Amino acid sequence: MFNLLDGATTGGMGGSMGSILFLVIIFVVFYFFLIRPENKRKKKLNDMRSNITLGDEIVTIGGIIGKVVQVTDDTITFETGEDRVRMQVTKWAISSNVREEKERAQQEAAAKAAKAKKKAKTSGEENSVDNNKD
User: Fold this and answer.
1) Cβ neighbours of residue 65 under 8 Å, at least 6 residues apart?
2) Count of H helices and E strands in the chain?
3) Is the pTM of this model over 0.70?
4) Tens digits of residue pLDDT in 77-91
5) How many domains is the chain partitioned into structurally?
6) Which of 12, 24, 45, 116 lies 20 to 30 Å (CA to CA) from residue 101?
7) Which domain holds residue 64?
């Protein structure tokens, strides 16, 4: 009789261990697919906001575009439009730095072009752009 109770008890323990393992696996999946990318995005956004300098063109979360004229620890003052209206916002209200995005896009385009050129030369094909310049 004791053996039957022991078997039932260990069977229940095995089931609960499986449930705990399943929950741990679910948490790990959520961490790598949801939490970690969100933390990386927040860190990148905070870095962008802290690296804003005078003369940068920014876009606020409300869609207002302007050129930075003053930067403090917590606020940014920028000019909008031809009438040079100055607005002051907190740093968390900045959604993007236009200059930084343009530079990143140019770097990515140059990297893709270099990769395509390297691929064309390594595959034995002639680059038609280089041949037409002669």
Assistant:
1) 57, 58, 59, 80, 98
2) 4, 5
3) no
4) 999 988 889 999 999
5) 2
6) 116
7) 53-116
